[in-house]
Every structure is written in structure tokens, then in C-alpha cells.
Design goal:
heterodimer; A: Multidrug efflux transporter AcrB transmembrane fold; B: about 220 residues; alpha+beta; outer membrane lipoprotein receptor (LolB), chain A; globular; Outer membrane lipoprotein carrier protein LolA (chain B); OM_lipoprot_carrier_LolA-like (chain B); LolA/LolB/LppX (chain B); lipoprotein (chain B)
Chain lengths: ~775, ~220
């Protein structure tokens, strides 16, 4: 392979990369920021997966506000302004405070039309116990009270006010909220909170949608502020969290990216004081990052924001190969320069790829993306060094004083103390083992991927303390082969759910079954009311002058006529309340009917389980946590396998003792990384276990570079120091991330690579000494 | 509004009302309020409701007691016993067996019970923000007419008329849709009604009860 051929190959590769990248930019780049996309989908149960997808999609498009003011009038007024403002946005499907008066009328009509098909639990009990007097008594009490309002008008049609009875039994179950002129208002500690809800038309993860919604809300808030109305706004919804996550991720990408770049430039300038290495190093980085991005986008259809955050650390790794190339002694021809570093950087690439491959073996699309990004980037950077660099003449000199410092370090490392130092560092794994087995383990879950703002979380908690809001990740999935079967399953679940509420496991639940009973149940309810109409209750009403005695038969005939009034799913879904609860209705999924029972206020998660074969408990968070757990254990074993594998590879090239020495460096590095985690109080999780693979993959390079150079020269140390520092810095910047998973990854790398760096001259000189003896 | 209120309070404190003509002072809302509020109210009542949707008027009788602890107890004894306890911002209802009745949470109902409480306890000043109040005095006594300013009450009520000599003797509600409610207080009594006292106790207990049975 000569220089020209190499250059040609590199140019072809670059042309391909540029073509792919430009077509990508033409068709639009997809940056994903939904953390759920990082998580595996369940292959075993596509039905519940789709149900979850649908439910989370709908709940993610929901916005919930509480408009707070000490004055009820001002709170209402502010709520109106907020609704008006967000309604004016194109991306808003709907926005409302409670129920408008026309909606109330429609809902009232619904409960009136189907009054003989709907019954509250309490009334059902009364009817079963034949306590019919309760029904007439309540009407008498109501009508004889000084101000009975509009209820009297219902009497000629609905003598027992059944429609009112049912509706009020439902609204009784709402915590804190009262309907006040169509506004849903809660009063807590003398502050009035008006509930405002809205639904997005598009994904909450679209930056455009986020920007519009946030600025509209900002405008309303500043209007309130300017007019000093004293209104405060509490908000929650995926759009706010997603926007925050995206902003932080963007900041992190630029911190890590720019930070790493500056360091690389500074280091190269310091060591070489020449423009050519600088340009070539940045070219390597650029090609690496581009290739990583393009590959991931083509393989996955989009690039996750967290992949980019993680990928920004690639800068620090991708420069390693060019550093080695440039650090070869002066005077070498470009061709021989390459041949000197070729074995070392090739082995280095292979070990790093093995490290990243471990991420690929997990079923987490997020980790797969990150691994793909880095592998592709490293290969591209490696190829750039191997193909492009030899064809460019290089006369740059390494600065003398830099080499002098390196020389001093090497001399120290070669003195007699190195063996003792190395033997002492062997204690680290022992200490790490003891510490780790004695410290408590914590499980990792989905929240490891989330960087929640404290303020948003507080607002969400404030809202949850006032309202019962449905849990987003836990619910019951109810299914049936037919609609009727599904509705019956919903009804069958009610006693078990009530027991959960009674025992305080959950605060409440929301099911459509109270408004949309199965046909069988509607029939039963009708028969229950039939007994009421046949009882003396109508006579009681006649005796107190509320109805005329002669009309009793007419009321009974009217009742018989309502036999044809049956609630269909269409009736319910088109009613205002049905629309607002539409997120509980999944309809037809894979020829099965499905609905959701949402859970409010989970106090004891561990006590929630499937109610029966048709009512299953779905908990994405704990399912993911379990998966994390499984893969963490698997990853720990794989770590051993990787060490053995790399050791075997090394044994082919080096004597066993030498191979053992080289492999001792990553083992000690892993141990010190574990101690570092312990020091920072970071629990061992899948993410730092995976980082340990990279500690092996990258950390072993440094030992290899020494093993491959015939003597412990200042040039080799320089290359090792340069590449370790950039790696250390890039991953060190990851440790600043607000996303717990990435933070843990960064800390692990910081300690692991740091140890490898410190150990490299020691082990390097031991390895070289060994080489001389044999 | 606030300034006017505090001016009124100031003038009251400094005895400035003596300057206002004596004839006017006998027919001031404040004075009427004071008259109403002065003594513990305990009376029988007869209520007649004329409801458009019904062919006959509904007549009921019962007792009313404004307790020293500032709770209004309204007990219907015929045609069906039922009891309401109204306090500041709270209301409880009991059925014929004195068992608590769950009242659906409703802001308007709360407002109305508070209105009722304020009327009967003579707390007319507090109604000024919701109603325009006109008064009339003659040798027979006084009468006060309240018409709601456009607000939540105006959808429900046309006017409220209170009349009396010292105490309130009758209340007339005219609802927006034309229904009429007349309440006549008869047989004012001096002593606290033993029979009603227990409801104050029960309503306190009921606070706990209603929390437990929140979900249906």
C-alpha cells in the first residue's frame, strides 16, 4: 500500500461521507429528544407496548396548569387570558378551564338521556337493599330547601333527579376541585387555583412547538406581572420537561465539544508549535465526528440528543491516533513514521472497538446509538491517520522542553521504584472489592436518562398536592376480544381497585366504566331502577306535593319508554367528558379492544399487580429498571470475558508475563474507577459498568504503545500523555452532565483513564525491561 | 370601595355619625344590621315555595337557630325532617335519621349558603360587594331590598327582600326563572333550643367522616 493509493482511498471515503452528509442535510436531520426512544421496546408483548406507546403519546401531549391567585375573580380572569393565549397557537389542539356552559349543558343532557343506565355505587347498594325512601327523601329535601335552583324543572321528566344524583356522586370524588361557573377551582390555604388543561397537536419534543408554547406562556406571565395582578402559574407537562432537557443537552454538547477542541488545540500547539499538525488533528476529529453522526442517522433514522452529548467525548479519543503519529522521533520519513505506530494504533483501535461493542450487545437503542457513533467515528479517525497522513510531508518538531519533561518522567519510571509502585497499586483492586461488597447497591432506572429541572419538578409536585393527576408510567391495561368483553373487564376490576384505594395503596383511579357501562350492566341498572319506579317512592313524592298523584302512572310509562336509551361507545366518546377522558380509550389494537385505567397518587408501588388476565398492570419504569438490572449483571460478566479475550489476543503477540503486565493496567484502572464512584457516592449502575469496558479498551492502549516501542522513549510518553489528557478531559466534561447516566459514565472514565495515565510510564518501563531480558 | 369602607369605620369610631341627621340614623343599613345581629336568633318558620314547574306551592315548617358559635341551623320538621348546618364557608346536611348527607362540592351552593348565613346573621355590610342594597323605613318597621350586581348571583336571583321590626320577620327570594320563596319567621324565642345543639357537635364529627367517604 503506497501513499498515493492511501490518499485515493481516503478521498473516495471522504467523498462518500460528504455525499451522505449532504443528502442527510437536504432531507432534514432528525434529532430525537424523547428519552423513551432510548429504551428497548418489549418484543414479548407488542400489545401492551403499543398500548403504552399510545397512552404515553397522549399523556405527553397534555399540558396542565394551575392559575393561582388570592382573589377568585382574578384567578378566573387570568385563567381565561391564559386559555385565550394558548388557544391562539397553531400547535394547540384544545385548551380549556373546566367546562364551558355549553359543554355543561351537553354533559347534563347526556346524564339526563341515560339516567336509567347509570348508577353510583352507593345508589346501587341502596337499590339492592330496597331503601327506595332515600331517593324520594333526597328529592323532598332538595326541593324544600330555601333555594333549590334549577333542579325543580327536572321533576316532570326525572322525578328522582337521577341525572343530578349520578353526576354529583361523580364530582364528589374529585379532590379539592369545585365547579364554579364552568371553572374548576381548588382553594388551598386561601389561594384559589383554577385548573387549565391543554392538548398539543404535535409532539411535545418538537423544538418549534416548545419554543412557541413557552414564549406564549411567558408573554401571559409578563402581562400579569406588568399589571400586578399577583397571579402565579404552576405548570407541568412533557413539553416543559423536554424543552428543559433539550436546552441542557445543547449546552452540554457545546461545553464538551468546545472544551475538548480547545484542549486539543492547546496541547498540539504546545507540543508542536506548528500549524500543520493542528490542521491535521482537527481534520481527524472532524472526519470522526461526521462519520459517527452520519452512520447513526442512517442506521437509526435519527440521532438522539444524548448520543450527541456522549459522542462529543469522541473528540478526545479520536485524536489519539494522530497524536501517536506526530509524536514519532524527528527525522522519520512519513512512510516509516506510519510503520512505527501502525501496530500500536491498530491494536488500540481493536481494543477500543471491543470496549464499545459491549454497549452494542445491550437491547437499549440509546446505548447502541452511542456505541455506533463512537465505533464509526474511531474507525474514520483511524483511517484518516493511516491513509491521509503519510501522504502529507511533515517537518514539524516536537518542542524541546516538552520532550525534556517527558524524559524526566521516564527516567523516574525506569528507576528501581517502579516495581514497588506497581506492586503497591495491585492493592487497589483488593480494596475496591472489599469496599464494593460492603456498600449497599441501588438499582438504576429510567430516571437515569432524565435531567429534570428542580423548578419544574417542584411545580409538578405542587400541582400533584392539589390535584390528583394520573401517573404517566403506571396504569392498568384492560383488554377484551369484543367491546362488550372489554367493558365487562373494566367493571370486574372495580372491586379490586376500590380495595386498593381503601387500603391506601393508591389515592384514586380513573376508569371510563362509570360513564360507559357494558350492555349487560346497563341492563342490570335499568332493572334496578325499575324496582324504584314500582316502589312507594313516587307515592312519597306525591304525598309531599312534588308530583301529582294522578301522574304516577305516567312516570312509570315514561320510565318504560326509556328502555331504548342505551349508551354506545360513540355516545360517550363524543360527550364533553368523554372527550376529556379520551386518553383512557385505546379502541381497537390488533383486533382487540383496549382501554386504560389510570392510577392517581401511588403510595405503595410494590403492591400493584395484574388484577386478572384481562386487567394487567403496566409499569414501564420498573420493567426498564429490571432490564437495567439484568444487563448490569450480564455486563459485569462480560467485563471478565473481555479481559480474558484481550489477554488471549495479547498472548499471541507477547510472552505471558508481558501480557499479564499490560492487562494489569486496566484491571487496576477499573478498581480505582470503582473506588472513585464510591467516593462520589454514585451507585454502581449499568452505565458505569459499561464505562468500565471503555476503561479497558482505551486504558490498555497506553500500555500497548509502550510495549510496541522498543525503548521507553520520551516520544512514546508524550503520545500517551497527549492522548490520555484529551480522553480524560472529554470524559471529564461528561461528568459535568446533568443527566445522571452520563454523569456516572464521566466519573467512571475520569478515574479509570486517570489511573491508566499515571500507570502507563510505570508499566511501560516494566514491559520494556521485560522485553530486554527475554 | 375599600377607602369608602374605611371612611365609614373611621366616622363610626369618632362618633361622626351623630352629625348626620337623627331621622336618617334610624334607617341606616348599619343600624338595621345591628338590630338583627344584636340577639341570638331562635325562631320557628313557615316557608312557601312557588315553583313554576310544579302545580302546587310547597309549604314547609321548621326551626331556625343562629348559635352563639356563629353557625346557622335550619331544620325542616314537616313535610320531612332534614337539617342544615351553615357556618362560614361550610355546610352540612342531615337526613330524617340525622345521618349526614353528602353534598356535591359546588362553589355556587357554598356562595348561597354563605349568603343565607349573612342575611340571617345581619351581616349586611359584607353583601355590599355583590348586591345593591336599598332600604325603607316606616312606623311598621324596616325593609331591605337586595338586587345582585352582575355576578354569579344574578344568574340565579332577581331580588331578596327582608322585612322586620327589630328582628327579621320575613324573607322573600325571587329567583331569576320566576320561582318565589317566602320565609316567615314566627314565634321568636329567647332560649337556646336544646334539641338543635347536637347538630353542632355532629357537624364537627362529620368533617372527619366526609373525608373518609370521599370516593364513591
Amino acid at each position: 500500500m503506497n501513499n498515493k493509493f492511501g490518499l485515493l482511498a481516503w478521498c473516495v471515503g471522504m467523498a462518500l461521507l460528504v455525499a451522505l452528509a449532504s443528502s442527510l442535510f437536504r432531507n432534514g436531520v432528525n434529532i430525537e429528544s424523547n428519552i423513551l426512544k432510548l429504551l428497548p421496546s418489549s418484543q414479548q408483548d407488542p400489545f401492551s407496548e403499543q398500548a403504552f406507546e399510545q397512552f404515553s403519546q397522549q399523556s405527553m401531549q397534555r399540558l396542565v396548569f394551575l392559575v393561582a391567585n388570592k382573589s377568585r375573580v382574578k384567578a378566573k380572569k387570568s385563567a381565561e387570558q391564559l386559555v385565550e393565549k394558548i388557544k391562539s397557537l397553531d400547535d394547540i389542539q384544545s385548551a380549556s378551564f373546566g367546562m364551558s356552559s355549553s359543554e355543561q349543558k351537553v354533559q347534563g343532557l347526556f346524564s339526563y338521556l341515560y339516567r336509567h343506565r347509570l348508577v353510583s355505587k352507593n345508589d346501587e347498594k341502596l337499590l339492592n337493599e330496597k331503601k327506595f325512601d332515600d331517593f324520594s327523601d333526597r328529592v323532598i329535601q332538595q326541593l324544600y330547601s330555601p333555594l333549590s335552583g334549577s333542579l325543580a324543572e327536572l321533576i316532570p321528566k326525572d322525578p328522582f333527579l337521577l341525572s343530578y344524583r349520578f353526576t354529583s356522586s361523580i364530582s364528589n370524588s374529585e379532590r379539592n376541585l369545585r365547579l364554579d361557573e364552568g371553572f374548576l377551582i381548588a382553594k388551598v390555604n386561601d389561594v384559589y387555583y383554577v385548573l387549565v388543561t391543554a392538548t398539543l397537536k404535535r409532539s411535545a419534543f418538537s423544538p418549534e412547538v416548545q419554543q412557541k408554547v413557552l414564549s406564549a406562556i411567558g408573554e401571559v406571565e409578563s402581562d400579569w406581572h406588568n399589571a400586578s395582578v399577583g397571579t402565579k402559574l404552576l405548570r407541568t407537562g412533557a413539553v416543559f420537561f423536554a424543552s428543559h432537557a433539550q436546552e441542557t443537552a445543547r449546552n452540554e454538547v457545546s461545553t464538551i465539544g468546545v472544551g475538548s477542541l480547545i484542549l486539543v488545540i492547546a496541547l498540539v500547539s504546545l507540543a508542536f508549535l506548528s500549524i500543520k499538525p493542528l490542521l491535521l488533528v482537527t481534520t481527524t476529529i472532524f472526519v470522526g465526528v461526521c462519520s459517527g453522526f452520519v452512520t447513526v442517522h442512517y442506521l437509526f433514522g435519527s440521532v438522539h440528543l444524548l448520543t450527541i452529548v456522549f459522542g462529543a467525548s469522541l473528540i478526545g479519543v479520536a485524536v489519539d491516533y494522530s497524536f501517536h503519529y506526530f509524536s514519532v522521533e524527528q527525522g522519520s520519513e512519513t512512510r516509516s513514521r506510519l510503520s512505527k505506530v501502525f501496530p500500536a494504533i491498530t491494536l488500540g483501535l481493536i481494543s477500543s472497538v471491543i470496549g464499545y461493542l459491549s454497549l452494542l450487545t445491550t437491547p437499549f437503542p440509546g446505548l447502541q446509538q452511542m456505541a455506533t457513533f463512537c465505533i464509526s467515528g474511531l474507525v474514520a479517525a483511524y483511517l484518516t491517520v493511516v491513509l491521509l497522513l503519510p501522504s502529507i510531508p511533515l517537518k514539524s518538531r516536537i518542542q524541546g522542553h516538552v520532550l525534556l519533561v517527558c524524559d524526566k518522567i521516564i527516567n523516574f519510571a525506569q528507576s528501581g521504584v517502579t516495581k514497588r509502585i506497581w506492586l503497591m497499586t495491585l492493592l487497589i483492586p483488593a480494596v475496591a472489592l472489599v469496599t464494593f461488597y460492603s456498600s449497599p447497591q441501588e438499582s438504576s432506572d429510567i430516571r437515569q436518562f432524565q435531567n429534570s429541572s428542580v423548578e419544574l419538578t417542584q411545580q409538578q409536585q405542587a400541582i400533584q398536592s392539589i390535584l390528583l393527576t394520573p401517573a404517566a408510567n403506571q396504569f392498568y391495561l384492560v383488554k377484551g376480544k369484543t367491546l362488550e368483553e372489554m367493558l365487562e373487564s373494566l367493571e370486574n376490576a372495580v372491586p379490586a381497585l376500590d380495595r386498593l384505594v381503601e387500603s391506601g395503596v393508591i389515592e384514586g383511579y380513573q376508569s371510563i366504566s362509570q360513564w360507559l357501562p357494558s350492555l349487560r350492566r346497563q341492563q342490570q341498572v335499568y332493572q334496578l331502577y325499575q324496582r324504584l319506579y314500582q316502589s312507594d317512592a313516587l307515592i312519597n313524592l306525591a304525598n309531599t306535593g312534588i308530583i301529582e298523584e294522578k301522574d304516577i302512572d305516567k312516570f312509570r310509562r315514561d320510565f318504560a319508554e326509556t328502555k331504548s336509551q342505551i349508551i354506545s361507545s360513540e355516545n360517550w366518546l363524543s360527550s364533553p367528558l368523554g372527550k376529556s377522558l379520551s386518553y383512557l380509550w385505546l379502541g381497537d389494537i390488533n383486533q382487540q379492544y383496549a382501554a386504560i385505567i389510570s392510577i392517581e397518587g401511588i403510595n405503595q408501588l410494590e403492591k400493584l399487580e395484574d388484577i386478572d388476565a384481562n386487567v394487567v398492570f403496566v409499569d414501564k419504569v420498573s420493567r426498564i429498571s429490571e432490564l437495567f438490572q439484568i444487563y448490569e449483571t450480564r455486563a459485569s460478566w462480560l467485563l471478565l470475558v473481555a479481559l480474558v479475550l484481550i489477554f488471549t489476543l495479547l498472548s499471541f503477540r507477547y510472552p505471558v508475563v508481558k501480557a499479564l503486565l499490560i492487562i494489569s493496567s486496566p484491571v487496576i484502572a477499573i478498581a480505582s474507577a470503582l473506588l472513585g464512584l464510591f467516593l462520589f457516592n454514585i451507585p454502581l449502575s449499568l452505565f458505569n459498568t459499561l464505562a468500565l469496558f471503555l476503561v479497558i479498551g482505551i486504558g490498555i492502549d497506553y500500555g500497548l504503545f509502550f510495549a510496541e516501542s522498543r525503548e521507553a522513549s520520551a516520544n512514546t510518553l508524550l503520545a500517551v500523555v497527549l492522548s490520555a489528557m484529551t480522553t480524560l478531559f472529554s470524559f471529564g466534561l461528561l461528568a459535568l452532565s446533568e443527566t445522571p447516566a452520563i454523569h456516572a459514565f464521566g466519573v467512571t472514565m475520569l478515574f479509570g483513564i486517570g489511573t491508566s495515565l499515571v500507570l502507563s510510564p510505570v508499566i511501560g518501563s516494566l514491559v520494556i525491561k521485560l522485553g530486554k531480558h527475554t | 370601595m375599600k377607602i369608602v369602607n374605611s371612611l365609614l369605620i373611621l366616622s363610626f369610631l369618632f362618633g361622626a355619625n351623630a352629625v348626620i341627621g337623627a331621622s336618617a340614623s334610624t334607617c341606616q343599613i348599619k343600624q338595621i344590621s345591628q338590630k338583627i345581629a344584636k340577639s341570638e336568633l331562635h325562631s320557628d318558620f313557615i316557608q312557601t315555595k312557588e315553583i313554576k314547574a310544579l302545580s302546587r306551592p310547597l309549604i314547609s315548617r321548621g326551626k331556625i337557630w343562629l348559635s352563639p358559635s356563629n353557625k346557622l341551623i335550619w331544620q325542616v320538621s314537616s313535610p320531612l325532617k332534614s337539617t342544615m348546618v351553615i357556618g362560614a364557608g361550610e355546610m352540612y346536611q342531615f337526613d330524617k335519621n340525622d345521618l349526614p348527607v353528602e353534598i356535591p362540592p359546588n362553589a355556587i351552593a357554598n356562595e348561597i349558603s354563605t349568603l343565607f348565613f349573612n342575611l340571617l346573621s345581619g351581616n349586611l355590610e359584607s353583601l355590599k360587594s355583590h348586591f345593591t342594597i336599598t332600604k325603607q323605613c316606616n312606623e311598621m318597621g324596616w325593609s331591605i331590598k337586595l338586587s345582585p350586581i352582575k355576578n354569579e348571583f344574578s344568574k340565579l336571583l332577581k331580588t331578596i327582600e327582608l322585612t322586620g321590626q327589630v328582628h327579621i320577620e320575613s324573607i322573600l327570594f325571587e329567583e331569576s326563572r320566576g320561582d318565589l320563596t317566602k320565609i316567615r319567621l314566627t314565634a321568636l324565642k329567647e332560649q337556646a333550643p336544646q334539641v338543635l345543639e347536637k347538630y353542632l357537635e355532629v357537624s364537627r364529627l362529620d368533617k372527619k367522616h366526609s373525608k373518609e367517604s370521599r370516593l364513591e
